[in-house]
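Key result, reporting period 2: structure in, sequence out.
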């Protein structure tokens, strides 16, 4: 009887060990916490800042005058961007009419011929920032040999000028002139040019 009890106890102990083994497999855990997504940035600077830039204020324009101005465009964001001229607008004002002006504005004898017809401009990518167009640089409006009247400039341009991240820089120059043959017809007139520069993630179609 004693042997039977010992055998039964042994069987029971083995059963406990087997059942207990179900809960004793090897295991290991690792973690993946703190997963985050951070957007890159596009940040266009114009002449070193993020405020409106007035490049031209010329109050005494007359036949034979001319000049130029250059905008410095820089991408200070964290990704490559593509520069476009999103919008360009030209507005004109007649101002005060003078007798010599009206005499030259034939056949009507009224102030209808505006400065915008005779203010000739050339807008281009001035890669070397020297204020004048050089072979290989991109024309945007007009050409060095044949500037065009400012009031015929298009509303926008898909320039697609690539600017590298973290300070990629280029230059946009506008040269202007008034032909000496213009005479009195532009007296008292004025022109205002507005340009909106845009930096985009992808090149425009």
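The corresponding designed sequence is given below.
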């Amino acid at each position: 009887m004693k042997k039977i009890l010992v055998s039964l106890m042994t069987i029971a102990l083995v059963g406990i060990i087997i059942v207990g083994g179900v809960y004793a497999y090897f295991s290991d855990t690792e973690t993946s916490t703190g997963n985050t997504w951070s957007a890159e940035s596009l940040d266009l600077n114009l002449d070193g800042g993020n405020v409106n830039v007035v490049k031209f204020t010329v109050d005494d324009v007359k036949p034979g005058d001319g000049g130029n101005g250059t905008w410095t465009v820089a991408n200070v964001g964290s990704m490559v961007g593509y520069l476009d001229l999103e919008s360009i607008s030209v507005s004109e004002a007649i101002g005060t009419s003078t007798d010599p002006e009206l005499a030259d504005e034939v056949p009507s004898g009224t102030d209808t011929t505006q400065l915008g017809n005779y203010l000739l401009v050339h807008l281009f990518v001035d890669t070397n920032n020297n204020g004048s167009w050089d072979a290989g640089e991109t024309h945007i409006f007009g050409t060095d040999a044949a500037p065009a009247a400012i009031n015929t400039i298009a509303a926008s341009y898909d320039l697609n000028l690539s600017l590298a991240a973290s300070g990629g820089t280029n230059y946009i120059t506008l040269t202007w002139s008034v032909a000496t043959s213009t005479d009195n017809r532009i007296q008292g007139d004025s022109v205002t040019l507005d340009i909106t520069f845009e930096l985009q993630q992808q090149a425009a179609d």
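The radius of gyration is 37 Å. Strands lie at 44-46, 66-75, 81-93, 119-125, 139-141, 148-149, 157-163, 168-178, 190-200. This case is discussed further under Risks and Mitigation.
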